């Protein structure tokens, strides 16, 4: 790993630990409010349970991403590249997030040809797509769209929402043709770092994966694309 990569990862690690501390603090405070240990009662609403589930999952996802990044950066992750049905893959990602999506009343659209197959690492790619879906749930008004197609000989996995879109600083950091990201300048954190590194770990005949961010979604908000060779 390059010196620049080490600096980037150190900054991301520090920021992530701070975020996880805040999430765990919120979970503990909420449990103190809703659990009466003396009476043995739990007075909680569906909204409180959903928020606890969301924060707990964020911490779990952050830990998984940190472990994956460590393995990728140190050459300890053995990729499992296989030919997969892309429509089925997107459906699996949706089902994993379905309970919270349903609770929030978010509409989901999935658009992908049933006969589209591609070679990629299922677990790594699912980690990316689920991370982006989780982020989209925070900012969408009420719709998320998952789609996949082949563009310029590469698989284009798209997660779109009808929220306010990505902030300008993120669009400047992640250019359309850019694969190296200055995360200290962009303050984009673990999620974007993780998505970038996973995409770049996919290579075929000298072409590497990348991510794209834009505010040109046909449903009116941000578009996050994972481009795999």
Features:
single chain, 229 residues, alpha+beta, five-stranded mixed beta sheet, two-stranded antiparallel ribbon, 7 helices, 52% helix, 22% strand, globular, disordered N terminus
Major β-sheet annotation:
5 strands, mixed
Question: Quick one: how many beta strands?
Answer: 11
**Low confidence ranges:** 1-7, 175-188
What separation lies between the terminal Cα atoms?
23 Å
Physical arrangement of strands within the biggest beta sheet: 4-6-7-11-10
Mean pLDDT: 83
Structural class given helices, strands, pairing? alpha+beta
What is the element string, with H for helices and E for strands?
A: HEEHEHEEHEEHHHEEEE
The percent of residues in helical segments reads 40-55%
What is the rounded Rg? 18 Å
The count of helical stretches stands at 7
What is the approximate shape?
Answer: globular
Beta-strand residue percentage: 15-25%
How would you describe the overall organization of this protein?
The chain is α+β, with helices and mostly antiparallel strands. The chain is 52% helix and 22% strand. It is built from 7 helices and 11 strands. It has helices at 3-34, 46-73, 86-104, 122-139, 168-173, 183-186, 189-200, and strands at 35-36, 41-42, 81-85, 107-111, 117-121, 143-151, 154-161, 203-204, 207-208, 210-214, 223-228. The strands form 4 sheets. A 5-stranded mixed β-sheet has the order 4-6-7-11-10. The chain has a two-stranded antiparallel sheet with strand order 1-2. Strands 3-5 form a two-stranded antiparallel sheet. A hairpin with an 8-residue loop joins β10 (210-214) and β11. α1 (3-34) runs antiparallel to α2, α3 (86-104) runs parallel beside α4 (122-139) and α4 packs antiparallel against α7. The longest helix has 32 residues, at 3-34. The two termini are 23 Å apart.
């Amino acid at each position: 790993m390059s010196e620049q990569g080490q600096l980037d990862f150190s900054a991301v690690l520090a920021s992530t630990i701070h975020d996880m501390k805040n999430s765990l603090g919120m979970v503990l405070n909420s449990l103190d409010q809703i659990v009466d240990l003396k009476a043995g009662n739990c007075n909680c609403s569906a909204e409180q349970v959903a928020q606890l589930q969301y924060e707990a999952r964020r911490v779990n996802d952050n830990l998984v991403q940190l472990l994956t990044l460590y393995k990728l950066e140190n050459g300890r992750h053995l990729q499992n590249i296989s030919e997969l049905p892309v429509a089925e893959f997107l459906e699996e990602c949706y089902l994993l997030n379905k309970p919270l999506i349903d609770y929030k009343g978010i509409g989901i659209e999935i658009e992908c040809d049933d006969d589209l197959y591609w070679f990629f690492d299922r677990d790594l790619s699912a980690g990316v797509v689920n991370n982006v879906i989780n982020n989209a749930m925070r900012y969408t008004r009420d719709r998320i769209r998952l789609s996949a197609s082949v563009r310029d000989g590469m698989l284009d996995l798209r997660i779109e929402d009808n929220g306010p879109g990505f902030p300008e600083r993120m669009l400047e950091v992640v250019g359309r043709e850019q694969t190296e990201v200055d995360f200290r300048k962009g303050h984009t954190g673990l999620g974007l770092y993780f998505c970038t590194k996973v995409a770049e770990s996919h290579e075929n005949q000298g072409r590497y994966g990348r991510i794209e961010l834009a505010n040109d979604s046909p449903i009116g908000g941000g578009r996050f694309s994972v481009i795999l060779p």
